[in-house]
Specification:
Order of helices and strands: EHEEHHEHEEHEHEHHHHHEHEEHEH
Oligomer: single chain
Number of helices: 14
Low-confidence stretches: none
Strand content: 15-25%
Radius of gyration: 24 Å
DNA sequence: TCTGGGGTCCTAGGACCC
DNA sequence: TCTGGGGTCCTAGGACCC
């Protein structure tokens, strides 16, 4: 038996934790560069502001309705998420952290499941200040769906226990909702299922799993089986190592110079390599990409992408950066206005880097250098030590005009109460 | 003027082998 | 060179998730 605990409008709720004055005010949180809407409080949803709306298109509406607008503050959200997960773990026997705002918990053998769900919900509210909803069911897909019902229907008081619903009620609920509300069914599958006259959750529930498998593959078949209460997806208590590490960002203004692209690539590479070492992996391939602005059809478009296999798998920032610079040289075209750049580390393995015969001394030096770098950045903040190549230009830096304080992670941002 | 970022899994098709 | 069945491995692209 699974429970899914999910923070309500998580980023928006985080912004409210230290701003009780915003408790009833509509709140939105924007993506990087203050580009799109990525989180909305219930009041904002009522204003018909949608997920993914570009901010410049809704800015006027937001101003007229007194919406509180925030740039995304991942330091704050990350810290509150960690507190939320610890709080859940203090009550649930085993949990899987599924995303920044969601966790599955193993409820097998729990006597009063609704009671425990309510207790988790209350404790997270009291200890962290984040409102949540809980869905309880025999499979993860159903738990997700039950959570969705709990969010949408106030009569559940935040906790929906699927097995407690009558057969009639379950069917009625499933008939009322489009199939794309289900975990694993996106809009494309939604479109193609509609052609088979499968448009509600109930339609899919009644479909023949083998027919669905042959037409849509195993993932959709699994959704049906899970909807019938047969678990196909297990709880993953330990997060598996990442298989690739990607860092990319749009620039706040267009960039044309190679040195500035190099500065951005350097920053991404440092960050990706730090994550690589954190999970004790090495990478065998480095990829680099640079894009022009696809929305500016009046300007020359270009997207450059290349990947390079390293002779020896590495976790050395500088070795990886050298490879990335060579790739940048290859894909760079002058006369283009670039909007975005990124790096990808892939073919990751957990092998110890093999010192090659001719540079064994170098590789030991590099490992201790990386260790020193990581220790300093751990202690004094992630970008305390960085490469001089990052310091070129400023157009590529992220815009975050509406950033809230890091209430919980910076001494200088601590709230004062008088 | 202004349009996010970071992942995973599955499948189809090509190359290659016996 | 083609024939046919059967298999593996790799990659690109599509689809999904938050």
């Amino acid at each position: 038996m699974y429970a899914l605990i999910d923070g309500n409008s998580f980023f928006a709720s985080c912004e409210r934790v230290f701003r009780p004055d915003l408790w009833r005010t509509p709140v939105v949180v924007l993506s990087n560069n203050d580009g799109c809407v990525v989180a909305r409080s219930a009041e904002t949803k009522a204003l018909k502001i949608r997920m993914g709306d570009p901010y410049f298109k809704i800015a006027g509406l937001a101003r007229r309705h007194g919406v509180a607008v925030f740039s995304s503050n991942y330091e704050l959200y990350g810290d509150l998420s960690a507190r939320m997960m610890q709080t859940i773990a203090s009550l649930a026997p085993a949990i899987e952290i599924y995303s920044i705002d969601e966790a599955f918990a193993d409820f097998t053998g729990i006597q009063n499941q609704t009671g425990l769900g309510t207790e988790i919900r209350n404790r997270v509210m009291q200890w962290v200040g984040i409102p949540t909803c809980v869905g309880i069911a025999p499979t993860k897909t159903l738990a997700k769906y039950a959570n969705h019902l709990a969010k949408k229907n106030p009569e559940f008081q935040g906790v929906c226990n699927w097995p407690d619903l009558s057969e009639t009620e379950r069917r009625t609920r499933m008939r009322q909702e489009v199939v794309t509300e289900l975990w694993g069914i996106g809009w494309r599958l939604g479109e193609s299922l509609a052609k088979q006259r499968i448009s509600t959750i109930y339609d899919l529930y009644c479909a023949n799993p083998s027919m669905i498998r042959s037409k849509y593959g195993v993932t959709v078949e699994r959704v049906i089986r899970e909807m019938h209460g047969h678990p196909c997806i297990e709880l993953e208590e330990v997060t598996p190592r990442q298989k690739q590490i990607l860092r990319s960002r749009s620039f706040s203004q267009m960039v044309t110079g190679k040195d500035e692209l190099k500065a951005a690539i350097t920053m991404h590479l440092h960050s990706a390599a730090a994550t690589l070492r954190e999970q004790h992996s090495t990478a065998s391939s480095v990829g680099v990409f640079i894009y022009s602005n696809r929305f500016r059809e009046d300007k020359p478009q270009y997207s450059g992408w290349d990947i390079k296999q390293l002779p020896v798998p590495s976790c050395d920032t500088f070795a990886l950066a050298r490879a990335a610079y060579r790739l940048l040289d290859r894909i760079f075209r002058p006369g283009i206005e670039y909007k975005k750049a990124g790096v990808v580390l892939s073919d990751l393995s957990d092998d110890i880097p093999q010192p090659d015969l001719f540079s064994a001394g170098d590789s030991c030096r590099s490992l201790s250098l990386m260790k020193a770098l990581d220790q300093i950045n751990d202690r004094y903040g992630r970008r305390s030590i960085r490469s001089a190549a990052e310091m070129v230009g400023h157009q590529w830096h992220m815009r975050r005009d509406k950033l809230s304080p890091c209430y919980t992670t910076k001494w200088t941002d601590l709230r004062a109460v008088s």
